[in-house]
Amino acid sequence: MADYVELYAKSLGFAIKPRTVLVEGTTDVDLFRLAARLEYEKSGINLLNDDVAIVAAGERERGGTNGVMRELFSFRGMARTCLLQNGTPRYRFIGLLDNDFAGRKAVKSAQEFDNSILEYKDIFRLWPTMPLPGNLDQKAVKTTFEKANSNYKGLDWEMEDLLPQSFVEAFKIECESAVRDSKKVEEKIHWELTRDGKAKFHQFIKENALHADMSSVIDVLRAIRHYLNSQKI
């Protein structure tokens, strides 16, 4: 039987794997790949091996929350008919969204459209703490997330916020106009970057980030592998 999931992915230029995480854009992919490379250089552990892939849902208007949900619907639908010989699904896809207005709206809209899509199982929002629950039952994962992030209610959280405050402050010295605003809750800070500032920040990360600077991104990647029940490292 033809692997329609792989054919569809190739038509989009997506390099999927048995477990694939759809993210909002290419900069998210770049951050995860950098984190994985720095972890591999330090520990020899490959967090992005032949089992797990991070894939951008699209570039510019083809990406974002709409892009993640569009491709998540498509891939989940096709994956139901693509089975291994033992009858289990060959592929699993999840979506990872920023925890902002657009991300929260996307989760709500997705569940209204298809109530089989569950947050904390099929869709995850990025939180300041991405816990490692012992039980991967959706309700148990939800409870663990809510408890771990109870101090950060109302705080938007995006990939760029995973970098340490000291790293962002060093960036601000070079490009002060890039940061439009910030909000601090407890010890966590959400940085509101301009569009041009975000691009410059990602370039700054590529040129300057060390393993210690990327530790929170590495932790998120480990957490994602856990939610996917991927122990192959």
Features:
6 strands, 233 residues, Rossmann fold, four-stranded parallel β-sheet
What does this structure look like?
The chain has a single domain (4-151, 212-227), classed as Rossmann fold (3-Layer(aba) Sandwich). The protein has a four-stranded parallel sheet. Strands 5-6 form a two-stranded antiparallel sheet. Helix content is 45%, strand content 14%. The chain is globular. The chain has 233 residues and is an alpha/beta fold. The chain is built from eight helices and six strands; from the N terminus they run αβαβαβαβααββαα. β1, α2 (26-43) and β2 (52-56) form a beta-alpha-beta unit. The model has no long low-confidence stretch (mean pLDDT 94).
Summarize the structure.
With 233 residues, the protein is α/β, with parallel strands linked by helices. 45% of the residues lie in helices and 14% in strands.
Spatial order of the strands forming the largest sheet:
2-1-3-4
Largest sheet: 4 strands, parallel
Work out the strand percent: 5-15%
So what's the overall shape? globular
Kindly give the count of domains.
Answer: 1
Q: What is the element string, with H for helices and E for strands?
A: HEHEHEHEHHEEHH
Mind sketching the topology for me?
Blueprint: H1 4-12, E1 19-23, H2 26-43, E2 52-56, H3 64-79, E3 92-97, H4 101-113, E4 123-125, H5 138-148, H6 165-174, E5 179-185, E6 188-193, H7 195-208, H8 215-227
Parallel strand pairs: 1-2, 1-3, 3-4
Antiparallel strand pairs: 5-6
Helix pairs in contact: 2-8
